[in-house]
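Exercise 3.2. Students should predict the tertiary structure of the chain below and write it as structure tokens, then compare their answer with the key that follows.

Predict this chain's 3D structure.
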Amino acid sequence: MALHPNGVHHLAIATRDMKAQLEFFTDVLGGELKAMYWMHGVANTFHAFVELNPSCYIAFQQHPDNPAEGTVGVTHAGNAGGQVTAGTMQHLALSVDTLDDLLALRDRIRSRGVPVMGPMNHGMCQSVYFAGPEGLALEVACGSAIDERAWIDPEVQALLGIDADELQHMLYPASFERPEGGVPQPSADGPGPHLVYPAAIYRLLLERTDEQMWNAVESEPPVKAAG
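Answer key:
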């Protein structure tokens, strides 16, 4: 079975100004606010979700100790080609269906006073670029079904040290069949990678059963349905 993620459910962006981010992603970009509540299991922290489609959201996390200022080249790239610390988001590209949609959304963004560069034709997609609150580097793009036969450059493959066998594994990842009873939890002392928690808490979390984790946080919505 070709088991793999089938999309991005949500991308969570840290903020110190939830209201400004929500205003931008709803008014400027036209997304709809769907959730705004205390973040589950995290003290004094707000969480919010803006819908792109019913299975894809941009989320925001406002923790009281989130640093207020970013640094271009360290925490933020500043634009879609800039350098930034490995493992952080370089830029966020949102999707539309057609070039006409791309141009219409570009003009919506411009109508709110936000400069937008593009459209640019990358061949594999067509894009426009602009900034969001708190230093976000943003893109909107259209295009799908990238042809790997045309877009995997042998020169770049060689410079990255990816040999022919490794490339085949990337092009055609191994299938997976979930065994009876599931897979045991790897050790907290293993190679990982690992989430960052205090060591004792991390071990306790990894030792919890599926049922314990399932019931670990509040799952009822904060607003009860009338009637």
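Discussion points: Residues 10-146 form a domain with the 2,3-Dihydroxybiphenyl 1,2-Dioxygenase; domain 1 fold (CATH 3.10.180.10). DSSP finds seven helices and eight strands in the chain.
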